[in-house]
Amino acid sequence: MSLRQMEYFLAVVEESSFTRAADALHVTQPALSHQVKALERSVGGALLERLPRGVRLTPMGRAFLPHAQLAVRSARQAERAARAAAGVAGGELHIATVHALAVGLLPGIAARWRALHPGVSLVLREYGSTDALEEQLERGVADLAVGPEPAQWLGPLLRIGREELVIVVPFDDPLAGRGAVRLAELADRDWIRCAMEPLSDGVLVLDRACGAVGFTPRTVLRTEHTSTAVRMAAAGVGVVMAPAHMVRGAVGEDCVLLSLDPPWHRPLAVFSRVPLTGAAEAFAELFGARAPAVPASGARPD
Predict the structure, then answer these.
(1) Contacts (Cβ under 8 Å, ≥6 apart) of 169
(2) DSSP state of 247
């Protein structure tokens, strides 16, 4: 079994066709078929069912697929890491992050990166939740991840600052003229909820915090993306809790940000499966230099 055979197998799965996969790989179809059949012999059974029009995975193929994907991704990641450690200026750096950071902090950081390292392009992969971010990094989809600090991470991790979580209201809201609000004052409000809300011991932090001051948030809308939730809040649908940097990046001046009293902050981190070297290490240092810093005494949402 070889890495090339797995790459050929994945191409056939992605294209659902030997012909289209051969074209994408710039090889002949007989050569592609030969390599896939050799792979099937090595694993002891058919991975693909050949149909009159296309192919589909067999049960053995479905079991084999995620492991082949991880092997190919890991090999590519190993090559990028080796090139970076050898001082190669070109290539790509694959970064996994959550949507809120992608629209909040990362645009400015990416622009600075292009000025400092024009030979290294960035490939950004966005996820709607911290759970999805950690799961995909474990599967090898990126060289490193930036996001809220994981509760448990066995690989290298660098703490790089904290983000403030704020309440977003429209300009005509009765609270709009204030700088801060106590959570208990929002007991009678409609809430917009999104997938990026932090968890603590499997419970949404907002639910736990609201319960501690005597109410359950009345949810009127749920969304996957924090930027969508913020725009809904700016339009007056309800209030939402979101990172301050993301609100400014997604909506700008179309809404009012209220700090919580006491303030809420969430730690940010850069983390990876392997030690950071070369371009990955340089990006982590740049992110750390530009991540928002707050007093260590700031309250945490957990």
Answers:
(1) 175, 176, 233, 239, 255, 256, 258
(2) H
